[in-house]
């Protein structure tokens, strides 16, 4: 049964000789997290874990403890295991997380509860924090700066041999489990459970050695080795389809049903990886970035051109960030396309700002990736008084004079601050690399990072007064 909170206990009063107290930031965060709307939204998501979570079962870890531990975890950059250890070890953190003298939830319990809080809820929580910041006069929404950044997914560097190799390894592991789950029925499938992992490993090592060879002979040897790798992966895929058919025949058993669902998920990706390797290596065809599968485990990963020294591209997702004065991220969105310009996303930023603050910003600033005549027109029509988007290409004389003026330069210096904000988010709040799985996991990872950042900014502003 889902509980709300433990009975209140003042741990500081129990040991007055230690003179324990919250540091200023935690003191302000403690007040912010007492907000009923934040609590109710998290509770609604946690209640979806099972149909009768609200009313049946043993008493669970209270909602208040879960919310505060997840915030603390992202605030300090801890793992789930570290969050459990440090909260359990500290009277101050026990008081802040409202765990008091009760048992602190272990890392596996935290993982299960955290996975029930969806990215949509985290968007709503961030909106609520922005409203609280408005009420506390941390921001008034007069200035808006917009930019995008890349957040990497947790994958190894994609290669043409890596996808078929990963596919064979994962399918072989599932086949081994399926053999145990099918029991006597597995005897009729013969060679369908054969593992080809060792063959793929040998071929992958051979490809690494052949990659050093130059000339036509080296290229021919590479193609021949890739042909054998693809044939091996294709045979493993055929084995997987035979076993999947047998598993579907026993769909009434939970174990076989789970294995069938996993094979249904992996086999199409293996087929796509095989076809991709054929097109690129054997046929010499260039595969468009939008059609590429970069990871068997994170299929939503995209190629993001960065044009930076030492890192021409990144593999992950692109994130749009809207920042207002006061250092708050008032809005964010995971973009559908990793490449291309950012101009199509500016109208969404303006619409989100009007929804949050009830009016357009007085100042809108962005880099050249956001500049277009259409965007400037939209901003003017929306009521933005001053638009600081530098002209792309050769500017007409009037525009050059405007961009050399003091007002434009001051606005563009304000824009530069979002680069520092992105650096802080990547360094301190985990937006350099996503550690959660799947597209929804990516949304949860980005949402928790931005929420923890905004809570810290509001708390710091309150502590400095």
UniProtKB/TrEMBL annotation:
It comes from the Bacteria. This is Transposase DDE domain protein. Residues 326-455 form the Transposase IS4-like domain. Residues 25-114 form the Transposase InsH N-terminal domain. GO terms for biological process: DNA transposition. Pfam families: DDE_Tnp_1, DUF772. NCBIfam families: transpos_ISNCY_1. GO terms for molecular function: DNA binding; transposase activity. InterPro entries: Transposase_11, Transposase_InsH_N.
């Amino acid at each position: 049964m889902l509980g709300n909170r433990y009975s209140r206990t003042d741990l500081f009063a129990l040991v007055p000789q230690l003179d324990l107290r919250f540091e200023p930031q935690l003191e302000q965060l403690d007040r912010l997290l007492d907000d009923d709307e934040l609590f109710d939204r998290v509770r609604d998501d946690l209640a979806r874990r099972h149909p009768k979570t609200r009313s049946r079962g043993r008493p669970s870890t209270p909602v208040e403890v879960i919310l505060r531990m997840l915030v603390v975890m992202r605030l300090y950059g801890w793992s789930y295991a570290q969050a459990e250890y440090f909260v359990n070890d500290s009277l101050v953190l026990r008081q802040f997380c409202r765990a008091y003298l009760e048992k602190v939830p272990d890392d596996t319990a935290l993982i299960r509860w955290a996975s029930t809080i969806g990215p949509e809820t985290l968007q709503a929580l961030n909106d609520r924090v922005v409203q609280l910041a408005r009420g506390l006069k941390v921001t008034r929404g007069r200035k808006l700066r917009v930019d995008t950044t890349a957040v990497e997914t947790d994958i190894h560097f994609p290669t043409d041999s890596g996808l078929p190799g990963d596919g064979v390894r994962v399918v072989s592991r599932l086949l081994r489990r399926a053999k145990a789950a099918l029991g006597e029925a597995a005897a009729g499938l013969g060679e369908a459970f054969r593992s080809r992992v060792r063959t793929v490993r040998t071929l992958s090592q051979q490809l690494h050695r052949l990659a050093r060879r130059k000339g036509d002979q080296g290229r021919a040897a590479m193609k021949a080795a890739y042909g054998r790798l693809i044939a091996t992966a294709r045979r493993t895929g055929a084995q997987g389809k035979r076993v999947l058919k047998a598993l579907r025949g026993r769909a009434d058993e939970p174990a076989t049903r789970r294995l069938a669902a996993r094979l249904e998920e992996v086999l199409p990706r293996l087929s796509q990886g095989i076809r991709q390797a054929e097109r690129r290596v054997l046929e010499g065809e260039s595969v468009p970035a939008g059609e590429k599968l970069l990871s068997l485990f994170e299929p939503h990963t995209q190629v993001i051109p960065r044009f930076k020294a030492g890192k021409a591209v990144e593999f992950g997702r692109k994130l749009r960030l809207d920042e207002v004065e006061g250092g708050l991220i008032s809005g964010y969105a995971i973009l559908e396309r990793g490449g291309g310009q950012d101009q199509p996303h500016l109208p969404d930023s303006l619409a989100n700002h009007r929804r949050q603050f009830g009016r357009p910003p007085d100042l809108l600033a962005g880099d050249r990736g956001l500049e277009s005549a259409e965007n400037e027109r939209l901003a003017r029509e929306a009521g933005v008084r001053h638009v600081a988007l530098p002209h792309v290409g050769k500017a007409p004389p009037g525009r050059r004079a405007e961009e050399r003026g003091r007002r434009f330069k001051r606005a563009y210096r304000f824009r530069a601050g979002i680069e520092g904000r992105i650096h802080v988010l990547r360094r301190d709040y985990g937006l350099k690399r996503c550690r959660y799985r799947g597209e929804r996991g990516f949304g949860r990872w980005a949402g928790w990072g931005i929420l923890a950042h905004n809570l810290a900014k509001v708390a710091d502003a309150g502590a400095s007064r």
